[in-house]
Write a structure and sequence with these properties.
Blueprint (H helix, E strand, L loop, with lengths): L4 H26 L3 H18 L11 H14 L1 H20 L11 H18 L1 H5 L9 H14 L3 H20 L5 H16 L9
Helix pairs in contact: 1-2, 1-3, 3-4, 3-5, 8-9
């Protein structure tokens, strides 16, 4: 940081802009709320920057943990997340001492990409009830929960939530093609939040 303060500051701001909507979304997806996602990203990012062993390290929220934490929160509550986090930390320290990271080079890229794609599908299905503005049906299988939410939305459509969700999606997709350097995901979420609060739209969650 002392040798390249300007470049490091720009890199940090860039990572923060990308991590902010991810942290909010993953916090909501895990069931702990947007505040928990934001606090976790800030604390974990600061600790990784101070204690990390690489000058090129980039730390931020990951969708893989969301899929793992959802059933833990549902069964054990927020306290279970703390316990699992401490267990994961001990395991990571043990793997680091054993220098297990060098063996990751033998994992084929399609395996990693398939794993990540599967997580993306699960997260997307989890957000369908929020996007449609319906109460999340009970159940642990995300496909069935998403399907029940879709059926409920067809029977009792919430056009406000559907319109906001469609608008956010359109802004993100169009913006990414028009100006990829601008974080339109943040712009869309802020705009949807402002519209929800200003017009007091019932049944429309500002972040979901």
């Amino acid at each position: 940081m002392g040798r390249h303060p300007r470049q490091d500051l720009l890199a940090g701001v860039t990572v923060a802009i990308v991590a902010l909507p991810l942290a909010l979304g993953f916090g909501v997806s895990s069931g702990l709320g947007a505040e928990a996602g934001l606090a976790t990203a800030v604390v974990a990012g600061a600790l990784a920057a101070l204690l990390g062993g690489s000058n090129l390290q980039v730390s931020g929220p990951t969708g893989a943990m969301t899929v793992v934490l959802v059933p833990i929160v549902a069964r054990y509550g927020p306290g279970g997340v703390l316990t699992v986090g401490l267990m994961a930390g001990v395991i990571l320290i043990g793997l680091a001492l054993l220098r297990a990271g060098q063996y990751m080079r033998y994992v084929p890229a399609p395996v990693v990409e398939g794993f990540t794609l599967g997580i993306a599908c699960v997260i997307g299905l989890q957000q369908i009830p929020h996007a449609l503005g319906v109460d999340e049906p009970e159940g642990e299988k995300v496909v069935l929960v998403a399907w029940r939410a879709l059926v409920d939305s067809v029977a009792f459509p919430n056009w406000t939530a559907i319109g906001l969700s469609a608008g956010v999606t359109a802004v993100m997709l169009a913006g990414a093609r028009w100006k990829p350097t601008i974080p339109f995901s943040i712009v869309a979420v802020i705009a949807a939040t402002v519209i929800t609060q200003v017009f007091h739209l019932d049944g429309a969650a500002p972040i979901g």
